[in-house]
C-alpha cells in the first residue's frame, strides 16, 4: 500500500515509517501537520493515511481526516495518546478505518493492516 503518515513527533513518525516499510508498504510522505497532510493526500493519492489526532491543535488530525475522506475517500487510521471518550467520539464521526493508541506496537500496526486487506 501507498501510505502517508501525519505525525508531529519526528521519532514516532520515523518509527512508524520503519515498521510500515518492513511490512512491505511504501511511505509516500511524512507530514507534521494536518494541513500539509491534506495537501499531500490530494497530490499523491495514497491508499491509506496514518493520522495523529493531536498536532497543531487538539483536534487537527480529526479535521484533516474529515477533509481527506470528503475529498478522496482515502481511509484513515487514527493514532493518538488520548484514549478518552470525547476524543474517540469525535474521531468516530469521520468513519476511520481504525484507531490505534500510542505507543504504537508493530504487531498492532500489522494486525490493523491485515484486517483492512481482508475487508
Any overview of this molecule?
The protein is an alpha/beta fold and 119 residues long. It contains five helices and five strands. The protein has helices at residues 10-22, 34-44, 60-72, 85-92, 106-118; strands spanning 2-6, 26-31, 48-52, 76-80, 98-101. Strands 2-1-3-4-5 form a five-stranded parallel β-sheet, sandwiched between helices. It is globular. It starts with a strand and ends with a helix. The mean pLDDT is 93.
Present the secondary structure layout.
Layout: E1 2-6, H1 10-22, E2 26-31, H2 34-44, E3 48-52, H3 60-72, E4 76-80, H4 85-92, E5 98-101, H5 106-118
Parallel strand pairs: 1-2, 1-3, 3-4, 4-5
SS strand fraction: 15-25%
Which sequence of strands runs across the widest sheet?
2-1-3-4-5
Averaged pLDDT:
93
Percent helix range: 40-55%
Helix and strand sequence: EHEHEHEHEH
User: Shape from CA axes?
Assistant: globular
Q: What Rg do the Cα atoms give? A: 13 Å
Low-confidence stretches at least 5 residues in length (pLDDT < 50)?
A: none
Distance between the termini: 15 Å
SS elements, strand count: 5
Oligomer: single chain
Largest β-sheet summary: 5 strands, parallel
Count of DSSP-assigned helices? 5
Question: Which structural class do the helices and strands define?
Answer: alpha/beta
